[in-house]
Amino acid sequence: MTRIRHQSLDCSPGCAVEATLQLIDGKWKGVILYHLLQGTLRFNAIRKRLPNITQRMLTTQLRELERDGFVLRTVYPEVPPKVEYSLTARGRTLEPVIMALKAWGDEHTTFRHDPEICADLKGSLTNS
């Protein structure tokens, strides 16, 4: 759990930034939110897009995003169980923030793209 520095948001103009970062803080939350911007995904589909995340960490991050009202977890009564994750209306309000982070990263960082993941994303974006 993150350490809360201030109990209220009347401390300074930067407190709103701190509060926002506390909500989306976590190594994987921003990336999970980014992928859910493309639409509803099942657990293994998210995990496929994040090959370096452990199952336990993905579960933890998704639970926190659900608890904070950004992600909706829908369980279907099937065998085996079918669980889907999607953004809530509140989660969708983070789209400009997430896309600004992506744009900044595209411009100011260098990294290798996984061709399989990029092809999956490109296909899902063009089919939307």
Automatic annotation (TrEMBL):
<dbReference type="InterPro" id="IPR036388">
    <property type="entry name" value="WH-like_DNA-bd_sf"/>
</dbReference>
<protein>
    <submittedName>
        <fullName>Transcriptional regulator</fullName>
    </submittedName>
</protein>
<feature type="domain" description="HTH hxlR-type">
    <location>
        <begin position="15"/>
        <end position="113"/>
    </location>
</feature>
<keyword id="KW-0804">Transcription</keyword>
<dbReference type="InterPro" id="IPR036390">
    <property type="entry name" value="WH_DNA-bd_sf"/>
</dbReference>
<dbReference type="GO" id="GO:0003677">
    <property type="term" value="F:DNA binding"/>
</dbReference>
<keyword id="KW-0805">Transcription regulation</keyword>
<keyword id="KW-0238">DNA-binding</keyword>
<dbReference type="Pfam" id="PF01638">
    <property type="entry name" value="HxlR"/>
</dbReference>
<dbReference type="InterPro" id="IPR002577">
    <property type="entry name" value="HTH_HxlR"/>
</dbReference>
